[in-house]
Amino acid sequence: MSYDVQSIRQQFPILNQKIHGRPLVYLDNAATAQKPIAVIDAISNYYLNYNANVHRGVHTLSQRATDAIEAVREEVRAHINAEESAEIIFTQGITDSINTIAFGMGAVVSKEQNIVITAIEHHSNIVPWQMLCKRTGAELRHLPMNEHGELVLEGIEEIIDENTAMVAFNHISNALGTINPVEAILEHAEKVGAWTLIDGAQSGPHAKVDVRAWNVDFFTLSSHKMYGPTGLGVLYGKREKLEVLPPFQGGGEMIATVTLEESTYAGLPHKFEAGTPHIEGIIGFGAALKYINEIGIKAIAAHEKKLLKYSTVECSKIDGFKVIGDSKNKASVLSFIVDGTHPYDIGVLLDQQGVAVRTGQHCTQPIMDAFCIDGTVRASFAMYNTKKEIDLFKAALEKSITMLR
Amino acid sequence: MTTIKQRQEELVKEFEFFDEWMDKYHHIIEMGKSLNALPEQKKNDNLLVQGCQSKVWLHAEKSGENILFQADADAIIAKGIIAMLIDVFNNQPAKEVAVANLGFIEEIGLKDHLSPTRANGLMSMIKQMKFYALALTD
User: Do B25 and A403 touch (CB under 8 A)?
Assistant: First the structure.
């Protein structure tokens, strides 16, 4: 069956509007994706019909809400092929997921050890590890990148060594779109017995993930980048790893017994889910997952790959256009600068023409420093973008450049 | 000599000429391009206006009772905006700059048309200019 982008677009009513009198061309999907009707309906349906707190009530609505979020937990498990649904923890997002692990590892990391990240991480996969290293005295190391925005694996055995406690890296770079050599890095980490965490912020919407095939210890997803609601993330962890980590936050739901002196913690996944969870978010995310699977992640990725290739080829014809991050293995992100222009100016003028992009450092200041630039313009694609939109984007970009030079 | 108020009225008139915001932006960009650039050696971090997304350098000095501004920015729209402000404030009595009411921003619709972070940047520029003016008032 061919990929019917027009019928997909009909499921995203927000796309059908004008911005400053021009049709909206939404190319800021790496920041957040738009939501299909199925997601919006699922959230409405929850509030219209079965809003209640979960896991506590004996009444029917509470049972229904509990069943609904637990069903999503199971769908997430199946989606990433985890062994059991208790290994799926709902968090506030990827930042929260990574902080949960980095905090917990404070109990198991010593100052002789080191933590390895990479040169192309989002700040949310840098700062929590810097904080862990500060607390424990462990050393923070990173895998370097080359001028194409690709990780350099030569010398990896000197960086990931027998003292490495954790290797944490992203599957796909949000700023550059580089798809990292996950298997090769995991292999080195496994060899020395280091724990591993993969930031899947950009894998969720663009790639098939199998955590057991990877044999990764921790993996994180972001709902809102996968056409689901904001404020919700997923933390997957292998049971034996999650069990040795202390909880990040204390409160309701995460306890087994509480006296005024001492508490014992609940089992997985509740140990890491203090407080009332983001119930509507989880239910909406379930609908988003279902929608992604109906279209098929491989079909989506293939469509986006065409858009990326087309936009890269077309925009490269523009005088002074320079792609930042030109790895051969890329997903869905066209990050660029244009000679003689500032990214902010391009962003403002594109917006005036209805085109939404991200400008700046994309929460990846070390990458921008490495390329010696202040920032880039980033166009990022999703399942509903079209070739025609790339043409509109390119025309708007050319007009902006003419005005700015 | 034109007053701060008159200069604002002139600016509003200039912008009324354009119906489309793309054209207004074009005008802002042209103002940015024609602003005399600050010499490189003057672009030090002390002159950076805090609170702007792009880098904006602002220098002020006194000439008699009046205040003279020089500015630059790495992004051209920001430079155009500071050029507009300089157009209004340059070589005006410092004590008047410090208390001036900038109605033209509303009238042009500039603030509504900027993203919130950029609108904050605009407010930061104005604040910095008034701060200099206050400091240079006898």
Answer: yes
Please write the tens of the pLDDT for every residue from A62-73.
999 999 999 999
ipTM reported for the complex, 2 dp: 0.87
What's the domain count of chain B?
Answer: 1
* CB A39 within 8 Å of CB A224: no
Residue in A338, A342, A368, A377 to test binding to B, most B beta-carbons within 10 Å: A342
Question: CATH for A40-293, among 3.40.140.20, 3.40.640.10, 1.20.1200.10, 3.30.360.10?
Answer: 3.40.640.10
Per residue in A45-60, pLDDT tens?
A: 999 999 999 987 789 9
Contact status of B75 with chain A (Cβ, < 8 Å): yes
Which residue segment(s) compose the domain that B83 sits in? 4-37+45-135
Query: Nearest CA of chain A to the CA of B1: how many Å?
Result: 33
- pLDDT tens for B34-77 read 998 888 888 889 999 987 778 999 999 999 999 999 999 999 99
Spell out a b/e string for A304-321, using b for 16 or more CB atoms within 10 Å of the CB, else e: beebbeebbebbeeeeeb
